[in-house]
Amino acid sequence: MMLIDSPMIRRAHGSDFPAVDRLFSTAYPVLLAGTYSEEVCAGALPVIGRAQPELLRSGSFFLVLRGALLVGAGGWTQAAPGRGARTPGVGHVRHVVTHHNYQRQGIGRRLLDYIIGHAQGQGMRELSCVSTLNAEPFYAAMGFERQGPVTVPLPGGVKLPAVAMRARL
To answer: Which domains does the chain have, with CATH numbers?
Structure first.
């Protein structure tokens, strides 16, 4: 595939919700299908495959655009996902995804580098993430260390196997 426009990263806004939601609902089913069972995907995708308006308005969630096309998104928060707990100097990577048709083109790497730089600029000394099983090699290549397996409880009793990871900045 020939790439005409180099990717541009910009901060997300609440008005980006439809595009980000479309990216998540399109990419996550494809990205998770080879790693997770149909049962886990059926329970997880309605939750993790949807954009979160508050995350888009956080000021620390970013979009990767190639021209007008949204090809990636992700960010970080100081509040831990789900619990909202905060630890000074520790940020949490949130929903980093590259559209499946644009993987292996450096988009995810460029986005995560941007997220790391932004978090450092806000005083973070560490970033943690809960990685899907298929994304663990990506995070490891970006300097995150495996902390161990975790299970993310989702509505309906679905349990999503994942990996806790952490990087010192």
So the answer is: 8-168 (3.40.630.30)
